[in-house]
Design brief:
Layout lengths: L4 H21 L3 H26 L3 H31 L13
Amino acid sequence: MTIGLNDYLFLSVLLFAIGFLGVLLRKNTLVIYMCLELMLVASTLALVAFSRFNGTLDGNVFVFFILTVAAAEVAVGLAIIVALFRRRQTVQVDELNALKN
């Protein structure tokens, strides 16, 4: 039994849906951030799957650039979350709704 393109795409859609629901339903900024990263991984999985089944390296090159940008995004995103926690003493989204103070 071989694993086909449909299997990879199904897994990618499933991971993206889990991440999307996590962003919509969760209240903790760290969990929301992890769900956003899960959505990013799902899209890279789809790119690699398409690249592999088309026999080209185009998707792999895109994934390389996506991962380098994601590394910088993680550093900046976690720095923002730490700064918010230091200022407000919470990471709950409901309590971070005001930009003043």
